[in-house]
């Protein structure tokens, strides 16, 4: 059964109220909880296409999961247009990145002391890991409720509302897009296994056990810390229970239903099938520290090599060429951009014109097969 509800987010000067639409699908024999949000960075609209298709799928299939969908995770930012573009990554008034206001619920905030994980684990040690996880889930929800009462800055209020909707999810997907990009996925490194090959993307960035203000890390970080603490105290070898992903679904400023259908098929395979995939095409991962920017050594115009996006390149492969003013007027040669090691070219910036120091490309290095 599908239910739709609205959570008020923010009233505007003209009296409009922006609200968060939440699509909830409940199944009587649910095997797990799934959460998906799109367009938190409001110009990154391919995720809306995926949620649209998933909602249609849920209406016509018996899918044994509880599913919460938020197709417009940032309705206020979606309405801020600069010329023909959506100014969706930052709050136009404060400059805050909309994906940096999520709480590390372990730390002291709003009058709460930080969680003493050792004491928490020792308290529930005799009752087992599952009970520990249930109590921890309740604790996180109570701490987030305090934040929901206290935080009024827009990027924090929005983050708290979304965080609260995602808190019970076993599988969570924050759907984004990069500038001009092959599809790729951020996953916590504890999820590194052949199961990732179910996704219809061939590049994965493995994130470390560190906090940040972004949605995905806010979801998995407390659980990773808790599980590490449990394993240290009990000698056990549990894996954190959260399958939490940021999915970069290709180019921003696009609504590509064909691409979304292809990527959704992989998402459903990942959820439905815990087994590792063997003998399929190569898929590559690197650690987040090896996902880096190539910046413009000089200002000018860039001729990109979009045919190389998403594939592994040999060392010193020309990845783009910068035509600066001197090369245009004929007193120097254009500059070729490359990296001196094997690299997977993943994204390039949207504009053909860059100042010195601007980001031009993002590449994965020290890649390994999944
Ligand atoms: Zn984004």
UniProtKB/TrEMBL annotation:
Q: Where is the Succinylglutamate desuccinylase/Aspartoacylase catalytic domain?
A: 33-270
What InterPro entries does the record tag this protein with? AstE_AspA_cat, N-alpha-Ac-DABA_deacetylase
Picking any one GO molecular function of the record gives:
hydrolase activity, acting on ester bonds
Which UniProt keywords are listed? Hydrolase, Metal-binding, Zinc
Q: Which cofactor does it need?
A: Zn(2+)
User: Would the keyword Hydrolase turn up in this protein's UniProt record?
Assistant: yes
What this protein is called in its record is Succinylglutamate desuccinylase
Where does this protein come from, organism-wise? Cysteiniphilum litorale
